[in-house]
Amino acid sequence: MDTTRRELLKTTALGGLATSFAGIFGGTASAAGTPGLVTLPSGITIRQDIVSPRPRPSGQQPVHNLTTKPLQKVRVAHIGLSRGMTHVNDCLNLEFTEVVAVCDLRDERAKSAADQCEKVRGKRPDIYSGTEHIWEKMVARDDIDVVYIATPWAWHVPMAVGAMEHGKHAFVEVAAAVTVDDCWKLVDTSERTQRHCVMLENCCYGENELFILNMVREGVFGELTHGECAYIHDLRSLLFSLGTEGDWRRDYHWQYDGNLYPTHGLGPIAQYMGIGRSDQFKFLVSMSSPEIGLHAWRDKHHPNAGKHEKEKYVCGDMNTSTIKTELGRTIMIQHDVISPRPYSRINALSGTGGTFFDYPARLAINEPRKYRLDSPGSHEWLGDKDLARMRKLFTHPLWRKLEERAKGGGHGGMDFVMNWRHLDCIRQGITPDSVVYDAAAWSSIIEVSSLSVATGSMPVPIPDFTRGLWKSLPPLPIAFRAPGPAIAMPVKIAEWTPQDLQADWVVKSWVVSKGIIAAGDYGFEFQYTRGAHRLDFRKVALLTEDAVVAHDDQAGHSGLENVHNVYRFAIAKHDPAAKYLLQAEIKADGGTDSSGEISIWKD
Ligand SMILES: NC(=O)c1ccc[n+]([C@@H]2O[C@H](COP(=O)([O-])OP(=O)(O)OC[C@H]3O[C@@H](n4cnc5c(N)ncnc54)[C@H](O)[C@@H]3O)[C@@H](O)[C@H]2O)c1
Hints:
The chain starts with a helix and ends with a strand. By secondary structure, the chain is of the alpha+beta class. It has 19 helices and 27 strands. The strands form five sheets. The chain has an eight-stranded mixed β-sheet. It binds nicotinamide-adenine-dinucleotide.
């Protein structure tokens, strides 16, 4: 680091750094040299003070624990009926919701949504369509509790603010807002009106994301240290598809160079880490690769008869940001909708107790024995059977509850789980899992990352939309509301000593009846405790005096190291009068000096 930069870092507060290098790295201080204004290559300006703390205006109350009047029926209205149709259909599948009105600029979409409601529920919702501001009439009605907003990003904030100003809860698609100023607008409106502004971040309700969240809350990951996430989705073709979201999303590729779609990856990581509740984003450093792939694709395919030839994209194909949290944790987040590669949100988490990586799902555990897994340790990912066991132990109660109903639903079922959960919170009058502070924090990364990129990857503070509340809030309680099944602790049921052993293989059986209390799946573990020799075992079987209940011939051993020392047997029908025996061929390696215990547990 050169002296000038070192001196600057020493003497300048983080908040003052963001724009200091404007001009050197592509973003420019404004022509007139206005301090604290960065002009992006697209001409868009970002003020340095967007990241400064903003005191709560008088008359506003926090909404982190806002409760509302419980409702028999939640009356919903929908604006935006492309992606929004998933939400309409989910609402039609919920016994406690009623779709009161539907709205879209396009008449045919609004009519088709109303047709669908009538077909399923026998009641036609009111239609609002045809003009850009017709939604204002709809949100002014007094018979709506929740307004869903699934429109282009530019409409999210005016619509959410309008809905809240008229006393409705706003459920707004991702990202809730594009600029930090707009994030604050959502926060201030939610606090002023005491209405919820919930961002529809469906990825927080995926099976794997809920599985990880539950494991985090149950302590499997120990102390969390690091997360990685992304939105990696080859959208090149979609971005030139007229009449779809690609058509307006492409605009952001000439406006900003940063992370344009942060919330799918970041939302789940933020919930694992308790961001906004016991920890908080502190600052971010971001850098982008060159922009190549989008214009190259356009120049090769000449979509829409060449009408986009003059567009000048600035958003790097790959944007990588790292976030530091107040507790010192780190998060790596990427955005790449251009490179030819399979979809991924990475969805990775590390703590002192384990590491998870998704795409495909992989888990490594520091103490596999604690969960009676076959894995020898943390140097390899758990095998399929072990991962299945962890899923059995830690699948989130919410996923368990809704899995069947969610089947066939949008995005592998997570859309339904999300909609059920958010609407059920409104029905009960309890605080939803994520509130306006989460929507703002996760969305603010768009502009904050763009500011960092424009200033040569300088660290940029991430606003604390909770205004310090995060310090006193406990992590998200979702996992505690209905805890997963307690982990069955193994109990000693038998043992081996040198007297049981000979030079060669010998058949030995142990009575295990008192550990078998009902039909179900049982685990048996051989664990060496002392002696010069390890115990080898094979042909392990569970018997009654009359029959073989189950057997597993695979050899294993237990000594300083354990290899296949857990055997699992299913008892389909329990006979309380029967004498159950565990039988195995055993031998110690090279002598008979081996002692150990056999434990049993019911899965
Ligand atoms: N969470 C997810 O998995 C997911 C998936 C897809 C899209 N989205 C989000 O959903 C939102 C919508 O995306 P989309 O793919 O449906 O876009 P889209 O462009 O296909 O559809 C938007 C709809 O909004 C309507 N609309 C536009 N302006 C309007 C106005 N002023 N009043 C009423 N209607 C208006 C359009 O006519 C259109 O039917 C975006 O925020 C997007 O990021 C989220």
